[in-house]
Amino acid sequence: MTESYQIAGREMEAPIINGAGSISGINIAEMLEHARTLAASPIGGIKIGSFTLEPSVGNEAQYGYPVYYHNSNRGETYNSMGLPNVGIEEAIRIIPEFKAIAQQNNKPLIVSVSPSSIGRESLESIDQIEAMTTPLINIGVDLIVINTSCPNIVVAKGDRKPIMGYDGESMYDLLEMLERVYGREAGIGLKLPPYMTTEQQSMIPGLAQYILHCEAVEFIITANTIPNQVPRDETGNNILSVPNGMGGMSGPATSGIGREQLELWLNHLHSKKDVVSMLGINSGKELAWRVNRGASAGGGVTFLWESDDWGSAVTNMLEEYIQYEE
Ligand SMILES: Cc1cc2nc3c(=O)[nH]c(=O)nc-3n(C[C@H](O)[C@H](O)[C@H](O)COP(=O)(O)O)c2cc1C
Q1: Is residue 151 pLDDT above 70, yes or no?
Q2: 21: nearest Cα among 66, 89, 107, 85
Q3: Model confidence pLDDT, tens digit, residues 9-24
Q4: What is the pLDDT of residues 290-299, one digit of tens each?
Q5: pTM for the model
Q6: CB 280 near ligand 1, within 6 Å
Q7: What phi, psi does 121 have (nearest 5°)?
Q8: CB 103 within 8 A of CB 141
Q9: Exposure winner among 80, 118, 143, 270, fewest CB in 10 A?
Q10: What does the angle CA 228 – CA 55 – CA 275 come to, to the nearest 5 degrees?
């Protein structure tokens, strides 16, 4: 394996991180246990979150099981977790412990934040992001990832804008705020949704220009789950408990889309920003495909959640990775 890898200048021993949503939720003891497990593994960096401004119990508390479903025959993962998390205030209190765990093992700690429609509805998404990013920068986490793949809220007219990452105007406003408030080398990255339709893909060149001009943003992560997918059982009934049965789809079956999204962004960012690849990485061979193509690192959730032993999942992936690394 190459000596060292990096995201935005933060060195890592391996080109793999856990995806947002793998160490998250409202059970801090469990989150710490997962962080310790990954810290003892050869993983490159440890990510926690996504955190929202206000705490949230998530969809399971409201609608019951299941809000996560994996079909191993088809290699499909669906989730409608609804961002269960302790909220940014509590996150700021507990992060030093996570930071110590990561630091003791020379791994960067990456914190994911997400605007949401939970609580403080008078605050627009961009203000929510600023209210979460500033304290994270003040306590000194290694990297911050802003999730732009969640439903955006606009309260003025009471209606919702599309997912922030699909809304050019919101993305422009976000990047403008990040540049104005945080300036250069802030260790900030953007988590983007997958751009799949012709219309969505036509946004990429313009968005890439905004990102290239924003010095505060040093990397992107592509992609979040494919939105609004409905898994059904053999009798045609919805599996997920949420009212419309919709969740975000990921898992090995989405690796083609993960690869496509990586290439689209690499083509437009011209190696000037780091690109971390997610969606469908569940083998060392797939990880090597992404890194060989130009990703700074890869990551995922399914390869951990569908494993009984996260440490072995990382080790096995990296053992296979070195056979395919170019
Ligand atoms: C159960 C689950 C929870 C997730 N939670 C978050 C989250 O809180 N924030 C976020 O930005 N992405 C979240 N994601 C998306 C992943 O971080 C990542 O972008 C990708 O979808 C993982 O693909 P994989 O399951 O094929 O590895 C979640 C994915 C899953 C499966």
Answers
A1: no
A2: 85
A3: 999 999 999 999 999 9
A4: 999 999 999 9
A5: 0.96
A6: yes
A7: -70, -10
A8: no
A9: 270
A10: 55
